[in-house]
Amino acid sequence: MPNHTEHPVDEQAILLRIAEGDAQAFEIFYKLYYPRLFRFILRVTRDAENIEELIQETLLLIWEQPERFNHESKVSTWVFGIAYRKALKALSKAGKYSADVDIEDFHETLGDPLANLADNFETADWLSRALAHLPPDQRAVIELTFYHGLPYQEIAKILDCPENTVKTRMFHARKKLQAFA
Questions:
Q1: How far is it, in rounded angstroms, from Cα 154 to Cα 10?
Q2: What are the pLDDT digits (tens) for 21-45?
Q3: Can you tell me the distance from the alpha carbon of 44 to that of 147, in angstroms, rounded to the nearest whole number?
Q4: Contacts of 2 (CB under 8 A, 6+ apart)
Q5: 102 Cβ partners below 8 Å, 6+ apart?
Q6: 3-state secondary structure at position 116
Q7: Number of continuous H segments (helices) and E segments (strands) in the chain
Q8: Over the stretch 131-142, which tens digit does the pLDDT of each residue have?
Q9: Distance separating alpha carbons of residues 180 and 54, to the nearest angstrom
Q10: Is the whole-model pTM more than 0.85?
Q11: pLDDT at 117
Q12: How far is it, in rounded angstroms, from Cα 83 to Cα 158?
């Protein structure tokens, strides 16, 4: 689900303050992005042991080099792009894909479902198992589309690939997920 707040945050203004060395602005940015990055990296890597490290690496790069943001996309597109590349690098180093993640271990970080608890648990469990069988690039497309509400054009920028590749990955991911229905 996309992250909506009552008062929209001007992420570009926060990033400008970070570029000026404003630690308080970075704290705001950190709190804004931590839960989103946590979910995203968890779903892409399925590696519970390295999530914190990947989040820290992503946010550290933003703290150290905020000027790398080129204003050609949304701030979130830039941030998720950094996280995605770091996640792929970690998967490459590990030489494996892990499907041994128990979503319940991260209940507090991921948030508390508000609707029918039993249905949400069953759906989350099914989705977690199904997503575990997808390659990281397809999991990323699913995550960015359905959980962050991003259009294919933004996803293509994050994943550094053509928009048609995003559509193809979504097509193949849906086909694979249908096998679990």
A1: 18
A2: 999 999 999 999 999 999 899 888 8
A3: 12
A4: 147, 148, 149
A5: 48
A6: coil
A7: 9, 0
A8: 778 888 998 998
A9: 30
A10: no
A11: 44
A12: 9
